[in-house]
Amino acid sequence: MTDYTTYMQQSNLIGGDWTGADSGKMIEVTNPATGAVIGTVPNCGADETHRAIAAAAEAFRDWSISDLGFRVQLLQDLHDALLDNQESLALLLTTEQGKPLFEAKGEIAISAGYIRWFAEEIRRAKGEIVPAPQAGRRLMVTRHPVGVVGAITPWNFPSSMLARKLGPALAAGCTVVAKPATATPYSGLAWGKLCEEVGFPAGVVNIVTGSARAIGGAIMESPTVRKVTFTGSTKIGKQLIRQSADTVKKVSMELGGNAPFIVFDDADLDAAVEGAMVAKFRNMGQTCVCTNRFYVQSGIHDAFVARLREATAALVVGNGAEEGVQQGPMIDMDAVEKVEEFIADATSKGAKIVEGGKRHGNGGTYFEPTVVTGATSEMQFATEEIFGPLAAVFRFESEEEAIEAANATEFGLAAYAYTRDVGRVFRLDQGLDYGLIGINAGLITTVEAPFGGLKQSGMGKEGGSQGLDDYLETKYLCVAGL
Length: 482
Ligand code: NAP
Known about the structure:
- There is one protein chain.
- The protein is α/β, with parallel strands linked by helices.
- It has 13 helices and 22 strands.
- A 7-stranded mixed sheet has the order 14-15-16-13-12-18-19, sandwiched between helices.
- The protein starts with 11 loop residues before the first strand and ends with a strand.
- NADP nicotinamide-adenine-dinucleotide phosphate (NAP) binds next to α7 and α8.
């Protein structure tokens, strides 16, 4: 039987030592499926974080100039270690986060994929030789690791969000101080244990849990930390961008979304419903690329709603660790109350609940997968991120109207559209202000492609060949007198 505790570290990794908080204080971690406390992690603050930064700076001296082949081999070993322990790591993830086990296994697999991708990409991170305007000179563009990286990650993908940061940072020769989300610290701490096991030198990867404000503050104020990579809400991201000004840090921000999913009259209905289910209900609707607003053209509206409702009603809700479960609990009660608020707001303004609509009979933080129709731009979810299992369906008439409505938000992360009109595909690519666009596909994240938002959804890209850029400084070298 799979044991989820194999990689469940209840201490922090600082400079190669597993330690507790200076205060001795711990934070309880619960399983959202049962409400049971599964363990504790240190409640660290600024002092421990400063020590982690110092350890990372010390380790950077050797790591940044280490043989590329050495770093690549360690990353390949880390990839293998993740896959060798996929079952156990996935069960740990489900136990602290709630998502169904098959999704957690998929997350561990894509985590491994990111590590392998960047182990490969770093071997192609070439510089440039620039034609010199004067004889006797050689001009070169060279690339170098940025330095110590601070990485702050959310609870919804507690493993893969760190993979996208650790992969390029370690490949480039940077060292890392990571702070996982307090709700899901174990999947983050597991990275420390795995890195240690495969032989990363002490101090290259440091993981600190505890007060977000104190740890985040120490990372942001430190002149030693040259780059901060953050995935989380737009609200906290803005705060960190402001804090980065004093030390002029590089920042990359993967922030909130409000994805439109547009179904045109000419769509393949079966494919659209299949894509809608994964784009809406994956991780109980708690992903930054989850559909927030379904825009459905009048001619196909009723048929699409009927099929969406049927598929939603058929979802199996339960403890994600159990076989066959497709929808686990939500992360906490605040998340449940937020979805209730969206539903109350929408129904008070004329929306109709056609499926679900209330807390699930399982109790706790379980919520019924829900579909509402008659959505309008006056409703709260038209502009705010739902982050829960609520599908809001808007009706539209023309392509121009759909594009305009889709763009009417401060966010610009992911957008989806179902159509068989090739000309329209390119008009959508031009017209939709989104960093990721899926045509006839509801799940498009892959290690090979750049992931990142426009507008207030963030800056920088993770994955793809672009995912390395933020971890490398570019220098211009002029050699004269030749
Ligand atoms: P969050 O509240 O912003 O938290 C994210 C991380 O920031 C957590 O580790 C949190 O720590 C930490 N944090 C909170 N306050 C901080 C502060 N003052 N200084 C430094 N760090 C601080 O977001 P969340 O609720 O965990 O995650 C959901 C959000 O993430 C959604 O908006 C979602 O769209 C977004 N997201 C975006 C992407 C993307 O790629 N664009 C991917 C996944 C999620 P604590 O846990 O200790 O509070």
